[in-house]
Amino acid sequence: MAASKYPALMKPLDLGFTSIKNRVLMGSMHTGLERYAKSAFGLREMAAFFEARAKGGVGLMVTGGVAPNRTGRVSPFASKLTYSWEAKRHRIVTDAVHEHGSKIAMQILHSGRYAYHPFPVAPSKIKSPISFFTPRALSEAGIESTIDDYCRCAELAREAGYDGVEVMGSEGYLINQFIVGRTNKRTDGWGGSYENRIRFPVEIVRRMRERVGKDFIIIFRLSMLDLVENGSTWDEIVLLAMELEKAGVTILNTGIGWHEARVPTIATMVPRGAYSWVTERMKKEVSVPLVTVNRINTPAVAEDILASGQADMVSMARPLLADPDFVVKAASGRDTEINTCIACNQACLDHTFQAKRASCLVNPMAGYELKYKDLMKPTTSPKKVAVVGGGPAGMSCAMYAAQRGHKVTLYEAGEKLGGQLHMAASVPGKEEFWETLRYFSTMLAKHGVDVRCNTTAQAEDLHGSFDEVVVATGVLPRQTAHSWPIGLSGVDHPKVLSYIDVLRHKKPVGQRVAIIGAGGIGFDVADYLSHGTNDPSLNVDAFLQEWGIDKSLKHRGGLQGEEHQTSGRQIYLLQRKDSKVGKGLGKTTGWIHRLTLQKRGVEFIAGCSYDKIDDTGLTITVKDKKRTLEVDTVVVCAGQTSLKALEEQLKELGTSTHLIGGSKLAGELDAKRAIKEGMLLAGSF
């Protein structure tokens, strides 16, 4: 057998009483599946999800957070584990994982003041800035009872067949709230000095170890970088790590940032492996295995981290949503076939904050393994399928249809596949979209799709030559006056450009710019034009400087003064709506985009009407007051119109035709919807 390209990644990890078959830990995610764990069907869905990753070769998996008692639940219907009958039902999950030689740990998470229900508890009566309810301060008896609940939960996890538990001690949840002075104002033996504040986590681990025995994995998720004001110092964090080691932890997992922190930690603009230096520093202080986290999405990045000694394991959560077979593909040298996580958050974290089940933009099957299990079965009736348009919808449909055994021809009028993804990938911080293009290109070739670029498909040529024709021709930007939903004179002025002119054709843009439209595209254009010469998404040190992260760890919480980069351009981002600019952006990333542009001096203007464009600039009206923005470029990001002409022609000819992606619904560009529509349609043939 040939040696692995990634020997450090594939090396087993000996824990003494047991061994993990490789160095990949699937990190905990709020997938929403845990909410349904109360029913037999819900547990079957959860089992199918984890079994897919076990089949894919993951060494150790960690479930989403399970509360040790009712007050600890994240939301009113979130999962808990407090009774033996609940534990027995989890056997379907653990048995499914063990069948494939993988291990699974259950995360015990008490939300504390982060709870989205009316009965939260915390060390002190201090409301969180990201939740609705003020917590009740735990009494000393309540603290003792909560510690016992943690230990009982671990015992029940063992009864359920889990190989271990992960104690969630980071991200600002209850344990973290006890550790840090900003949230622990107690004056008893559980507050005051740092030694008193860390009694809570240390006692949890110590008593838990006594009750579960020596041959059970206890992972502790330790906040090594709080990224909030008045967070822990590095010396304090090291002291806690050493005390946890004495108390009996098996593995220390790295936690980065509280949920209320105003620093990006896992979004796509965060460089790959941006926080592994923190774990590396902790390796000098303790002897238990350490896991590093965040933005590790390729086997090459993981191998470099492990081979250089920065960590003993790598945690990959969303990358295993994107591709459950990540590990087996890496082990067998099929790197280019890995469906890479682009850290967009659109179908995972954003869904979680909308109380939806998490899935994945680039892999719509994630989280729905049971529902879609028959969708990609080989067809018994192969068809000739034409897909017109090589954007995300067209590539998805062509790939999945060919995978099922249909004979597929993909027509693309342009020089290369990708459509709007090419523009997205050109925006600083969104370079990961190149990985999506690489994946589709690889898989289209693997499954024998006949790709014809520089080819405009004609209705008369398609009619009668194919059993099914899919129209995925996408959109055109609204640019001309008659296609706009607004009145504006001077639209044909030479200073007017569309977002396609800027992002795809790279036309020159002046130093003073007005951007009409503050949706996702408008923000992308503003980011692209305000970007300096040093791309923080590709350079860890530049990223740390931009967001004020103290790599020396001399400052409490790991924060220091920020160093903002500017492009020298004056940019105005305009919208007709009177609501907050950027309100419609993703829940977990919108604040990052807004804050980034504000730091770069971009001026947001809401509630404006557009009057005219002339040599002077753009004249607008805001709250009945006219204002002329003396700009030399106006970039229009005022929406798109669908390209449906081909579908109409085919229908007139009586051809079986299907419309997907932007051709079906223009709106904001939506790769999540496009890729899913392509998959579902391919599964219906």
Descriptive report:
The structure is a single chain. The protein is an alpha/beta fold and 685 residues long. It contains 24 helices and 27 strands. It starts with 6 loop residues before the first helix and ends with a helix. It has three domains: 7-353, Aldolase class I (TIM Barrel, Alpha-Beta Barrel); 384-476 and 643-684, NAD(P)-binding Rossmann-like Domain (Rossmann fold, 3-Layer(aba) Sandwich); 479-531 and 567-638, FAD/NAD(P)-binding domain (3-Layer(bba) Sandwich). The protein is globular. 32% of the residues lie in helices and 16% in strands.
Features:
5-stranded parallel sheet, single chain, 16% strand, alpha/beta, Rossmann fold, 685 residues, TIM Barrel, FAD/NAD(P)-binding domain, globular, 27 strands, 32% helix, 8-stranded parallel barrel, 3 domains
Name of the CATH architecture of the largest domain: Alpha-Beta Barrel
Write the CATH fold name of the largest domain. Answer: TIM Barrel
Give a quick account of the main beta sheet: strands, pairing sense, barrel closure.
8 strands, parallel, barrel
User: How many beta-strand elements?
Assistant: 27
In CATH, what is the homologous superfamily of the largest domain?
Aldolase class I
Mean pLDDT: 93
Q: Report the uncertain regions.
A: none
Taken from the alpha-carbon principal axes, the silhouette is: globular
Please state the CA-atom Rg, rounded to the nearest Å: 27 Å
Roughly what percent helix?
Answer: 25-40%
Number of domains: 3
Backbone structural class: alpha/beta
What's the number of helices?
Answer: 24
β-strand percent reads 15-25%
Q: Which sequence of strands runs across the widest sheet?
A: 3-4-5-8-9-10-11-12
Cα-to-Cα separation, first versus last residue: 39 Å
CATH class call of the largest domain: Alpha Beta
